[in-house]
From TrEMBL:
This is RNA-binding protein. Keywords: RNA-binding. Pfam families: CRS1_YhbY. It comes from the Bacteria. Gene3D superfamilies: YhbY-like (3.30.110.60). Residues 1-97 form the CRM domain. The keyword RNA-binding applies. Coiled coil: none annotated. GO terms for molecular function: RNA binding. InterPro entries: RNA-binding_CRM (IPR001890), RNA-binding_domain (IPR051925), YhbY-like_sf (IPR035920).
Length: 103
């Protein structure tokens, strides 16, 4: 699903009160980390990740890595925090994606 501007704005407003669920640290970006992230996205659909100070990567590098290895879309980057969205594979957990489709 390619997101339009209104849909991204809606997701940003939903994620505003969320806390970061994942972080990128000194180990950097690995395939195992991306697999865990992808599994979590099936449960939550919308999450935040945080880049720790010890991370050797920039937020733009994290964005490119995530989008090239998964179907996850980066909705927003603010400082060292990224907001991610992916429609859940489990139909019972698709509450946010159903709201996004109606916009």
């Amino acid at each position: 699903m390619n997101l339009r501007g209104k849909q991204k704005r809606f997701l940003r407003s939903k994620a505003q009160r969320f806390r970061s669920k994942f972080s990128v640290g000194k180990n950097g970006l690995t395939q195992a980390w991306v697999d865990q992230l992808d599994g979590a996205m099936n449960n939550y659909e919308l999450i935040k990740i945080n880049l720790q100070q010890s991370a050797d990567v920039t937020p733009e590098e994290v964005k490119d890595f995530i989008e090239s290895h998964t179907a996850i879309q980066v909705v927003q980057i603010i400082g060292h925090v990224l907001v991610l969205f992916k429609e859940s594979d489990d139909e019972d957990k698709r509450n946010i994606s159903l709201q996004v489709k109606d916009i």
